[in-house]
Every structure is written in structure tokens, then in C-alpha cells.
Amino acid sequence: MRVGGALLVAGTTSDAGKSVVTAGICRWLARQGVKVAPFKAQNMSLNSMVTADGAEIGRAQYMQAQAAGVEPRAVMNPVLLKPGGDRRSQIVLLGRPVAEVDAVQYGAHKERLREVVNASLAELRDEYDVVVCEGAGSPAEINLRAGDITNMGLARAADLPVVVVGDIDRGGVFASLFGTVALLEPADQALVAGFVINKFRGAPELLAPGLEQLRLLTGRPTLGVLPWTPGLYLDAEDSLALDRPRPDARAPLGPETLRVAVVRLPRISNFTDLDALAVEPGVVVRHAAGPGDLADADLVVLPGSRATVSDLAWLRERGLADAIVRRARAGRPVLGICGGYQMLAREIVDEVESGAGTVAGLGLLPARVAFAPDKTLGRPEGTAYGERVSAYEIHHGIVETSGGEPFLDGCREGAVWGTTWHGALENDGFRRAFLTEVAGVAGRDFRVAPDVSFAAIREATLDTLGDLVERHLDTDALWRLVEDGAPAVLPVVAPGGAPRVPGGR
Quick one: 91 exposed, middle or buried, by C-beta within 10 A (0-12, 13-18, 19+)? Predict the structure, then answer.
């Protein structure tokens, strides 16, 4: 294996399965003794993580690095866009915020970002045997092609072979795969080497004729069909993942079932905080968009937000704010995490994120929030309920408390808890102790399972992704693409006709 081999995993749409396929390939290669790293040039996501050296990257790339068995680094996700209110996004460059821009202003940064992206990929290719790159959205977004730095723009710049993933569970997968290739200009098409079909749950013999016709129409093979596999919702990049039905959400509820309602904020961020709750036997996690969704909840969670003040206004418009205040004053548990914690305070002063100035919070915790221009990024550790807690923090809002009981870095008053720490619930001992107290306050006959390990479940899931790649993809073909690149001659596909083979590229 030569050092510096690379491959780009693109998709017909957002949430087609690019992240899990990338992670699966990383885990499969790592098992072969290959030194492999993930890479996503530009990620638009509200789910992020803090690396060991204090850089902020997309949570999916952090997970992919874990799949590869390497330390997550900023160069693995050099550009992170974090959407906020008013169609603006924060640009995080190599792990540090550098600007707040709208779509027009973003163009002024594009060449600088392109240089950083290309340099970051080159750095990884110099250091690792293989770099598995993940695209963003779809490469067929032809309105954005001129400024693209993460799909075919990256593939052309670095001469990367491209595999396109299509989600058959959505329907229309053959049209999506064909159309993706057909809409690309010939030089881009020359790098598209094959397809992967994701989330198939039918009879393979019924799919086979379609795969053959797709090959005849495009001149490109399908490199494998990944079966529908429940429970692979790892570190999703955007809130589309929240719209997937959870198996536990349809489970019958007994008197011992602990019911958790997570408020579905418009700018919800780091919602992976709740994944650790969902793995606990006897805990059902549901999303709430109105007061009625909170009625039977034993615990209401206000999660992180990229737009604390505007999401707080949304809570009030929906009647959720009043419902949360009523339940808290009745002694029913509420947990606020980061932006959700800020909403629970008495007062929020924000001249940074929203520019709204002083805004009244929900007043459920004795705290005041002041937004600072500099972002706090860290990997704090502490104790609660006698248990060690490791976490991470990403916020502009600085919370000062004036009472209540200490709770991690935040406070508790009555049945209301607040903390800026993300990831605390991934600590098994702390999670079990917290849920035990919540169940006691809620009067629920719930008993935690003492042997549930969130880290072990995560590792098992990453192993499952590696298994799927090994068992269902043409790994010999993947090796050839990584080592040799795309075939020298691939047909040009026109939207309305059969492919034709040019003289070469």
C-alpha cells in the first residue's frame, strides 16, 4: 500500500449514508493494519466535538476518527459551518471560529478556505496510508459547482476516485444515481467510479436487474448493496436524523418505563447528547414540538442551541415555555444542556450571537448569562453523584450562578438541572445515578441496568459498520480505487441518452 491513497464517498442527497459508509470503510481498513484517516473538507453541521487540543470539528468526523483508531484532529474537518439565525453561519476554520457570514459574504472567504482544505488533505495524505474523504450534500448541486470545495471540486483538485451512495429506502434510487452522474460535466464524470446502494431491505434477486441496467446506462458498476440495519444512527450531522422514527418511540410503555421528552428546537445542536439516554433499557426518548408532547414525560430536556435567544422565543410562541415552567414549579424534572441551560436562567445578555441585548430567561435557575465574543472550547472533567464525568464544552454564553446546588459546572434548584457540559450522559456511572434520581423525583418505578456501557455500544456499532463493508461491498474494487484511482476511461453520460466513451482523460 502506497502512502497517500485516497477515495471520496459522495451521496445523492444529504443523509444518504455518506458518514456511516465512510466510517465503515475506515474501520475495515484499520482492521487490515492500514493507517487510515477520515476527511471532510467542509461540513455544515450543528453537531460538533472538541478534540484533545481544543479544536472544534464535526461530530461525524470525530466518530470516523474513532472508527479508524486514530486521534481526531482539526485537519480532518478543516471547515465547519455552524448555521445560526437570519441565514447566517459561523465559519470554524481549523477548529477555531473566524467569521459570521451570510451566503453572499461567504463567497469572499472561499479561496482562503479552498487553500486550507487542499493543504489539510495534502497533510493527511503525507502522513497516512489512506484518507477516506466524505462529500457534503450531493455532487449534483450544479448551482454550487463553481465554488465547490468538498465534492467534485475537491475530487478534481486532488484526483480522487468517487463512489456515490444512494439511499434506496427513500425511493427513486436508480434515478438519483443516474441523474447524479448525468448532471456532472465530463471532467467530473471521469472520476465517478461506481455506486453503493444503502438501506436495502428486499429480495436481492429483484434488485439485480436494476443494477445491471444502471451499469449499462452509466458504464459504472455498483460496488455493493448495504442491507437495512437498524440502530446505526451514529453522530448525525444534521437534524434530518431527528426525523427518523426511533424503534423505542413506538414501544409499549409500562409503569416502569422512564419517559424522556427532548424539545425539538429549530436550531438544535449537539443532539447526540441524548444518544446515551436512548441506549438505556427501559428509557424511551421522544422529541417534543408542542406542549402536549410533554404531558407524560418524566424528564424534559432542553438541548443545545446555536441560536439561544431565537429558540427561546420559539419556545414561547409554541406554548412550550409556559408548559416547562409549570412542570418545573410542580416539581417535575427538567434538564438544560448548554443553550438549554442558558434558557433556564433568569436573564440573558446577548450582544454577540443574536444582538438582542438583555432578554428574560425562563427564570427556573438562579443564573445570569452573558455572551462573550470568544468561544469557550474545552474538555472538562469533574464529579457528580460521586461519579467521574468527562465532557466537552462549546459555547459563547458564560453562565454565572447565584445560588442553587452545584451540578457539574452548572447548578440545580429543585427538580431543575443545568450544565454547559455536552457528553456528560455518556459517562455510565453518572448517567445511571442521574436517571435513578430523576425516576425517584418523577415517582417512576424505574431501575437502571448496571452493565450498560455506552462506549462499548459505540465500539460495537463501529465494528458493525466495518462488518457491513467487508461483507457487502466489493472490497477488492475499493482497494483498486484507493491504490490506482478511477479507471483511465469512463463513459460520459448524457441526461437523455446512452453513455459514450471518450478517447481518455
Answer: buried
Q: What's the whole-number mean pLDDT along residues 172-181?
A: 96
Instruction: Express each pLDDT in 66-100 by its tens digit.
Output: 999 999 999 999 999 998 866 789 999 999 999 99
pLDDT of 2 reads 53
Q: Band the pLDDT of 146: cuts 50, 70, 90.
A: very high
- Decide: residue 103, CB within 10 A, 0-12 exposed, 13-18 middle, 19+ buried: exposed
Q: Are 314 and 203 members of one domain?
A: no
Tell me the pLDDT band of 430, cut-offs 50, 70 and 90.
very high
Buried b (16+ CB within 10 A) or exposed e, 125-158: beebbbbbbbbbbbbbeeebbeebbbbbbbbbbb
- Together in a domain, 389 and 441: yes
Instruction: Give CA–CA dist 34/67, Å, rounded.
Output: 12
Whether the pLDDT of residue 491 is over 80: the answer is: yes
Catalytic position from the list 133, 338, 411, 472: 338
Asked if 269 and 316 sit in the same domain, the reply is yes
Q: On the CB side of 219, how many CA atoms lie within 13 Å of its CA?
A: 21
Are 169 and 300 in the same domain? no
Whether 399 maps to a domain, the answer reads yes
Is 411 an active-site residue? Answer: no
Q: Is 338 annotated as catalytic?
A: yes
Contact, 333 vs 300, CB < 8 A?
A: yes
Q: What is the pLDDT of residues 318-331, one digit of tens each?
A: 999 999 999 999 99
- Looking up residue 127, the CATH number of its domain turns out to be 3.40.50.300
Domain that holds residue 425: 257-446
* Residue 249 in domain: no
333 and 265 inside one domain: yes
Percent of the chain with pLDDT strictly greater than 70: 93
Residue 166 to residue 415: CA distance in whole angstroms = 46
Which of the following is catalytic: 287, 395, 396, 422? 422
Q: What is the CATH number of the domain that holds 410?
A: 3.40.50.880
The answer on 436 and 463 residing in a single domain is no
